[in-house]
Amino acid sequence: MLDASRVLRELDSLWRTTGKQESGGVLRACAMTMLVAGGDCDEAAETLADLTREHPSRLVLIAERPGAGEPSARANVQCWMPFGRRQQICSEQIEMEAEQLGELLPAVRGVLVPDLPVVLWCRDLALAGRAEFHELAALAGKVIVDTAGLADAAEAWAVLAKFDSGRAVVADLAWTRLTRWRETVQQAFRSEACREKLSAVEQVQLKWAGAGMPSTVAYLAGWLRWLAPRAELDLACIDARMPAKGFGRIRELRLSGPDLEVRLRRPEGIGVAIEIEGLAARMMFPRLDQSALLREELSVFGRDEHFEQALERSRAA
Amino acid sequence: MVQPGRLDDPLRYDAPVDPATVVIFGATGDLTRRKLVPALFRLAYERRLPAGFAVVGVSRTAMSDEAFRERMRGAVEEFLEDSPFDAELWADFARGLFYVSGDVHDTNLYSRLKQKLEEVDRERQTAGNVLFYLSTQPSHYAPAARGLGGAGLQAGEGWRRLVVEKPFGHDGPSAAALNRELREVFSEDEIYRIDHYLGKETVQNILAFRFGNGIFEPLWNRRYVSHVQITAAESIGVEGRGAYYQEAGALRDMIQNHLLQVMATMAMEPPAAYEADAVRDERAKLLRAIRVWTPAEAAENAVAGQYGPARIGGADVAGFRQEPGVDPAARTDTYAAVTLEVDNWRWAGVPFYIRSGKRMPKRVTDVAIQFNRAPLAMFEAGAGRVQESYPNLLVLRIQPEEGISLRFFSKQPGSGMRLRPVTMDFNYGTSFGTRSPSAYETLLMDALQGDATLYTRQDMVEASWAVVSPVLAHWAEAQFEFPNYAAGTWGPEASDQMLARRGHTWRVP
User: Fold this and answer.
1) Which residue among A44, A175, A191, B386 is least enclosed by CB atoms within 10 Å?
2) What digits encode the pLDDT tens for the residues B315-325?
3) Is the ipTM of this complex over 0.95?
4) Active-site residue (options: B170, B196, B227, B258)
C-alpha cells in the first residue's frame, strides 16, 4: 500500500541530505501544491520546471499506467542556484504511479501541503468523465485544462460541462491565450481617435487560420459579444492551414462603425499590426508556450468574471 | 455599442495609459540614456504604452530626429535589461522619437518645442497630453518651467504634468524657492517630484506587508519596538561623481530624501485608502512629526564621516580626498548617521537610527525593526544574555536581496532548554521569480497614469529639509578630523558611540 507518511519521510530525508551537501544550506520554497494528472509526466515536469521560480510548489505528478503493479511513489528535490547567490533554492516533486487513478487518491490527500492552495492541471481531457478524477478535482481550488487542441469548440463545452458541479474554479488555457488580444483591444479604445466612439461599434469581424472553430476563437467571440452586445459579429476562417505551434490561430480582429475603424492584424510572427483611424503601430505578441500560459493562470486567484461571461456567451452561440 | 467597463480586466492586465508625449529635457544626458528611454522601450515591449505615444528629446546639442533615434537606439541596446532587443519593435518605437535642440534659457526653444508638439500630436495622435520630464542639472529646473509657462505649454488640450528629479533644493530655503518657481507655472497636482527609492518594489512592499496583513500592525508601535535602524550602504566610492558629490554629501544625497521617505513609509499611520493623497498625507504627517533637533541636540544625534584610503582585497583604494575632481581639503560627509525621534503616540521614545555611507563593506539597503526582548528570560542560566544579544528582529531588505526576515528564538535540539536565534526568510526572488519592473518603469507609468502615490509632495520635501537642517547647520560650523573611517569599514567610531549612549549597537547587515 502506498503510504503518504512514507513519502513525506522520504522528502524530509532528502531535505536533510541536500542541506548537508550544500555549505550555504538550501532555501525551501513552496507556495502551493500543484497536482498534475494525465499525459506524459516527464513533459509536464519539464514545463513546470520553468515555473518553479515564480510559482514554487510541491509538484505531485500523478500517472496512471497499465501494468504499473503496486501503487508507488518517489520523491525528489529540484534545486537551482539564483544568479549571484550562494544559497540554492529548492522545491519538491513527488511522482506517483498506479494502474488506476483511484488507487492513488488516499496518498495524494496525504501529501497536500497544509494551508496552501491546491491547483490541479488536467492534461488529459478524457479524465473529465471519470468519477475518481472528480474526487481528485475536489481536492483543488482551481482546475486548469486546455481545450485549444480540440477540433471544435462544441467538444470543449462538453468537456467543461463535466466540471460545472465541482467546487473548484475551472480555468482554460485556451482563454488564457487571448489575454494580449483583449489587452490590445482595451488599449486601442484608449486612443484619442477611439475613446469617444466606443458606442459606435456596429460590426465586429474575427478571422482565424486552421479549419474548424477552435475554443480560443469561440471565447474571443463570446467576449466580444459581451463587450459589444448589439454589434453584428462576423466570424470567418480565412486559411484552412494550421499555423505553427505557439503562434495562435487568430489572424485579424476588426471593430468598425460610422467614423471608426480599429484593426488588429497578426501575420505569422511575434508582432501584431494595429491600425486605429490611420495611426499604425506594432506590438509584441511573443510566442506562447504552456509554461507562459500556466504562469499567467497561476497568478489569477478566485473567479474570473471575464472568462465566465465569455464562456456563457460562447456556449449560448 | 461597447461596454467600456468590460474592456478592463485587472486580473490579467493593467489599466491602459492615456496617449501622450513625454518631453525629456536633458535628452543627451546619462539618466535619459541609462534609465529613461530604456524604461520606456521596456514598457513598449510589455505592451504597456498606447499606440498614440511619442518622446521629444530636448537638449543643447544640435541634432536631427534621425540622429536622436540612432543615439537612443545605442542607449537601449546597451542598457536594456532582462529582455531582448527587438529590431522591429524598435523601428516602431523610434518612429515616435523626436528631437528639439536649444538652450533652456532661450525663449525660442519653447516656441520651437510648441511647434514640434503640435506636429507630433497630429502625427502620433497623442491627445494633447504632455509629460515634461526635467532630467537636467537642478539649476535648469526653474528656467525650464518659466520657459514652458512663457510659451503657454503648461496648459493645452490634454493634461500637462511636470516630473522633477531630485535634488529639490540644497536646503530648506532653496527648496521653497524652487517650489515657488515651479508653482508659478504648474499646480501642485501637476508636479511629480521623483524619488526613485519609492518606485522600488520592495519599498512598495513595505505598504503591502504592513497594511495587507493583520498580524504585524498591532506590534508596530512603541510598546513592542525597541528601535529602528535604516541602513543604505554602498561599497563603491564616488565613481567619477566626485565634483557633484562633494557639494552634496551623504546626508543631502541619501538621508534627506530617499531614507526619510523610506522611514515615513515604514512608520506612517495606515491611510484610509490606497490613493495618492491619502498615502501622501500620512507620509507627510509622519515627516512633520519627526522632532527637529536644537543645535545642541543636533551635535549629539548626528555623526559625519569621510572615508580615507585603505587596502581592500589586495588593491589600494583611494580616500575621498584623493578621488578625481575632489578638493583635497573637502569637508564632505561620505558617511552620515542620525538619530531621529518621532513625536506621536505610536512612536514616542523609539529612536530611529539612519545611516548611509560610501565605501562600506558591502552594498545593502534595509530597514531593521528591533523588538523589545521578552520580559522574562526563563530558560537556563545565561540565556537572558543570549536573548539580550539577539532580540527579535524584523528586517525589510530593500536591496540587493529583496525580502523580509524575522529573527526569533528556537530550542536547540537535545536535552535542556538552550535557545538559539534563527531566521525565517521570505525572499522576493524565491517566491516571485518573475522580473520586477525597474523603479523608473514604475514611476514613469504612474506619472503617465496620473498616479502620484509614489511621488513626493512639496510639504514632504519641506518637512524633510526641516529635519536635516539643524544637522547641516551644525556641520557647517563643526571641525572634523577627516578622514575618520577607512574604506571598507562600517563608518566612524563616533557613530557607534551615538547608539551606545542609548544602549544600542549598530547591527551588521
Assistant:
1) B386
2) 888 899 998 88
3) no
4) B258
